[in-house]
Design brief:
Chain lengths: 258, 251
């Protein structure tokens, strides 16, 4: 019962409107297209992560929000659901810790094997190197996953997703809380043409998206396309960010700011 | 009546998952019943009752849980039929934890969670190896990469089972599971003359008969002495109970 290596990649995902936490219906269906970045905004607990899980699990009216996911306009058949489960979507969750009792390199090799990578050991080494680029304090091949700090764990998850995943959809949950350089992390993740949806509280990340969905009480309330004015705001904010990063980096290594 | 055996280590989420699946079956008009085989104590009945599923709990107490299970199957089945159920689920924590309750020709499910350690799929042995469907729970608590590596390990232990990720808390994936349950093979009128997929451990030593003292002189009957020596790598059991590797799976 082996799965096909090449996915029948959908060009468009649609989430049909579900209902909010009080049972009131959500606005119309939402489409997500290849090459488009969508940001999810909304207060804590409003249901951003829920919406990401609905996509990840190919929701079929069986999740708390009652949404259904359509691939290229139609619900997947049972066979397609089965083939796509766990393969359609690559996900960076809010999860900050590993629980598996394995060393970092063994884990990466096992993961590369499970993804049918041609040279698992070489792939694992590349992921480790990329993770160490992102993480503040580098970690070694033999370090246990469970001993990694929150930031190191997140760096490893991001590098692993960026380099080992072939999934056509990428879901990112609050990458700004990762304790890693978010701009660098995003750049690593955005390399390929995918459908990208990211939940965020960060203005720079929110404005980096082509489109913003605002979630309230469990349902999407507003859909906003990025305006020209917002694009220039983004430029300004990105400049400020760069200044922030420069000063943070200097402070971290004991520098003096003049 | 259709009969399904569900086995998995303690607290892996069996009840949570079965409750969700039974809710879907009930909503679709299929009456269900559950029998829980356990050792000392079980609170599972409350969860099933709350979902409106008739449940009977059988506790083995001081007896070998495996033998207790095997000797009570016919009666368990008769009870479930008496409730008017069309689908009956037998939940066990894998009996002594290394056995398998699965029955030839009937749907066999193993539930395992993502938190048990990377060697768990290998350790729990027959209940996973002889399952037709493996439900992996608690994926919400680990990263995607961990889920994939874990699934890969499960696949290495059981090359033919269908593997599904389900969530015992939200019920995600349980609707699919209920569809599979609805297609489970019919068991007919009773279980008489059906065969287990895995032989129960041989027993009947003095400890089976309530002996409590430690020492060679108290040990009578079917006794096996281990060899203790410094060892490396995997230890194989030299007298593993017979396994029906022919695997006759309902497809
Ligand atoms: N986070 C999370 N928790 C879960 C999931 N499935 C079950 N649980 C929790 O795990 C605990 C044990 O679940 P049960 O369904 O009672 O497990 P069981 O296998 O029936 O346990 P025994 O019958 O006692 O062996 C409960 O607290 C559940 O809420 C899941 O998918 N995710
Ligand atoms: N439409 C809905 N109906 C019922 N429950 C919902 C709905 N949407 C979300 N929930 C539930 O609300 C809770 C909080 O949602 P979620 O974790 O998605 O919030 P969040 O926006 O990601 O918050 P944070 O910013 O803190 O990460 C979850 O238990 C989720 O399952
Ligand atoms: Mg969230
Ligand atoms: Mg239980
Ligand atoms: Zn046993
Ligand atoms: Zn004995």
């Amino acid at each position: 019962m082996s799965l096909p290596d090449v996915l029948p990649a959908p060009r468009e995902l649609t989430l049909t409107g579900g209902h909010d936490k009080s049972g009131a219906p959500e606005c119309a269906a939402l489409a997500f297209r290849v090459g488009e970045i969508t940001a999810l905004l909304g207060p804590t607990g409003s249901g951003k992560s829920r919406l990401l899980s609905d996509i990840e699990s190919l929701a079929a009216g069986d999740t708390p929000s009652g949404r259904t996911l359509l691939l290229d306009g139609r619900p997947p058949t049972d066979d397609e659901r089965f083939e796509l489960q766990g393969r359609l979507v690559a996900q960076i969750t809010q999860n900050m810790n590993f629980v598996l009792d394995m060393g970092v390199l063994d884990f990466l090799i096992a993961h590369a094997e499970s993804r049918n990578a041609p040279e698992p050991a070489a792939a694992a080494v590349r992921v480790l190197a990329a993770a160490n680029e992102l993480a503040g304090e580098p970690f070694a091949e033999r370090t246990q996953l469970t001993q990694l700090s929150g930031g190191q764990s997140r760096a490893l998850m991001i590098a692993d997703t960026a380099l080992l995943s072939t999934s056509p959809v990428l879901l990112i949950d609050e990458i700004e809380n990762a304790g890693v350089d978010k701009t660098q992390a995003l750049a690593l993740l955005l390399k390929s043409e995918k459908i990208i949806v990211m939940a965020t509280h960060d203005p720079v990340l929110a404005l980096s998206a082509h489109r913003r969905l605002v979630v309230e009480n469990g349902a999407v309330r507003h859909v906003l396309a990025r305006t020209e004015a917002e694009t220039s705001t983004l430029k300004r904010l990105a400049g400020m960010e760069a200044e922030f990063s420069r000063i943070r980096a200097a402070l971290r290594v004991g520098g003096e700011i003049r | 009546m259709r009969l399904v055996t569900v086995a998995g280590p303690p607290s892996c989420g069996k009840t949570s998952v079965i409750v969700h699946a039974c809710r879907h079956l009930l909503a679709g008009g299929t009456p269900c019943a559950v029998i829980k085989f356990d050792c000392l104590k079980s609170r599972d009945a409350t969860a099933y009752e709350a979902a409106g599923v008739p449940v009977s709990v059988a506790l083995s107490g001081g007896l070998c849980p495996d033998h207790f299970y095997a000797t009570n199957l016919e009666e368990a089945f008769a009870w479930a039929r008496g409730t008017g159920a069309q689908t009956c689920v037998i939940e066990t924590a894998g009996l002594c934890n290394r056995c398998s309750p699965h029955i030839r020709g009937l749907l066999a499910i193993c539930v395992i969670d993502n938190l048990m350690g990377i060697d768990a799929p290998e350790k729990i042995g027959p209940m996973l190896r002889l399952a037709d469907l493996v439900c992996v729970t608690k994926g919400d608590l680990v990263s995607q990469a961990e889920r994939e590596v874990y699934r890969h390990r499960i696949r290495q232990m059981n090359a033919r089972a269908v593997i599904r990720h389900v969530n015992g808390l939200t019920g995600q994936g349980c609707q699919d599971l209920s569809r599979i349950l609805a297609l489970a093979p019919e068991a007919g009128e009773n279980l008489t003359d059906r065969k287990l997929r895995f032989a129960m451990p041989a027993a009947v030593c003095s400890y089976c008969l309530s002996e409590m003292r430690i020492g060679g002189r108290y040990q009578k009957g079917n006794v096996k002495k281990a060899v203790f020596a410094q060892s490396h790598g995997t230890q194989l059991l030299d007298n593993a109970p017979g396994e029906t590797e022919d695997g006759d799976v309902p497809s």
